[in-house]
């Protein structure tokens, strides 16, 4: 593990220690009740997947404030660091587990996003977030990463009936949370599960692809 | 605080320390998404209240195993001790907060429940649970208690729109959890919110009334 990763891991541990916490089991069961309810209501599994993502998006838009204030995070110099921050600090803070990231191949054409600095500041004021300025042009930096979550707690105690196994994206709320949180720091991303333990894969993996760096909109009161 | 309460409080702290935990904020927001979804789907607020209780019941029936194994709880000698256990150990283990209990006036007629011993053992085998044997006849023991939850985390960040304020029992899932968990140890109870901070009361209060001590059903394999 690199020094940077160890530093981020320790930051994640500290942030998690400072959070109000509840039993993981209660959360997992409540989430299970939510998914079951959506299946009953919506019937169509694609709609359930979309609904979970949409719910996650709203949650992510709100959770980013807590993340910024509790993680003491400063600017991320590129998309790689942003994804490392999600894996080592964000996941730890909110789910109590760590993830890993690795470079992936983008599936969409993305313009003008190779280098930037996302202002993940400790301020929660929107006007301080997301100023995009060039900072790195390393060839190593990609616009697309895979976030591996070896121990996704949402999977605990869950076994999918065979008719849902290859259709339901059970933890899709997480894709929404990441998308919503990053949009609040001016990063429009596309997130999707590529593998999932509940489908008998070895690990949960979410592909996070940067689509666009959004422009800050400043409103002038004068 | 009595010596018994301090002992139970310390038991709750230890059990909570041994639990896998996640961020309270993520849980609270996910729960909020669940309630919002139910309101959209069911329209009728009474149905939403019932649905939340019903979901809680299923969760409680499963959480009792975790409670018994992690809390190292032995027999509760009467209903008062059972309610203390919920307030000081159960709430702490799963929600990270403590409650208080006080005697209340039953609203239903309840037969033959004045004294018992619920086997809250560390075993999770159903056959070891809930043998009712007389153990106390103190006049101090009631069949009805109020569980006060001064800091119910489910209320965090929630403000009810005025049209829901006096109708929606926002945390009704908790009544279901208590009812489900106690039914697994042979205690049939009726639970209902009597006050709620979201309705501008000073504190959340749940009335827990013992309705019946269920008979153990032993299945003979021979």
From TrEMBL, chains A, B:
Endoplasmic reticulum recorded as keyword: yes
Gene3D superfamilies: Trafficking protein particle complex subunit 3 (3.30.1380.20)
Keywords on record: Endoplasmic reticulum, ER-Golgi transport, Golgi apparatus, Transport
GO cellular component, one term: Golgi apparatus
GO biological process, one term: Golgi vesicle transport
Localization (cell): Endoplasmic reticulum; Golgi apparatus, cis-Golgi network
Keyword Transferase: no
Organism superkingdom: Eukaryota
Record-stated family: Belongs to the TRAPP small subunits family. BET3 subfamily.
Protein name: Trafficking protein particle complex subunit
Organism of this sequence: Reticulomyxa filosa
């Amino acid at each position: 593990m690199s020094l940077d990763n160890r530093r981020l891991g320790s930051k994640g541990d500290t942030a998690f220690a400072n959070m109000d916490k509840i039993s993981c089991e209660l959360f997992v069961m409540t989430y299970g009740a939510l998914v079951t309810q959506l299946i009953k209501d919506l019937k169509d599994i694609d709609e359930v997947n979309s609904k979970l993502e949409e719910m996650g998006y709203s949650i992510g838009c709100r959770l980013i404030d807590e993340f910024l204030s509790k993680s003491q995070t400063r600017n991320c110099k590129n998309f790689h660091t942003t994804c490392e921050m999600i894996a080592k600090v964000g996941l730890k803070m909110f789910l109590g587990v760590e993830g890993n990231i690795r470079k992936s191949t983008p599936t969409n054409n993305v313009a003008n996003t190779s280098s930037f600095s996302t202002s993940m500041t400790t301020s929660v004021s929107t006007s301080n977030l997301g100023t995009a300025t060039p900072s790195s042009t390393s060839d190593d930096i990609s616009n697309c990463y895979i976030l591996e979550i070896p121990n996704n707690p949402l999977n605990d105690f869950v076994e999918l009936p065979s008719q849902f196994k290859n259709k339901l994206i059970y933890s899709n709320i997480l894709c929404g949370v990441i998308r919503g949180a990053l949009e609040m720091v001016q990063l429009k991303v596309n997130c999707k599960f590529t593998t999932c333990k509940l489908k008998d894969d070895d690990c949960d993996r979410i592909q996070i692809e940067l689509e666009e760096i959004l422009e800050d909109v400043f409103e002038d009161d004068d």
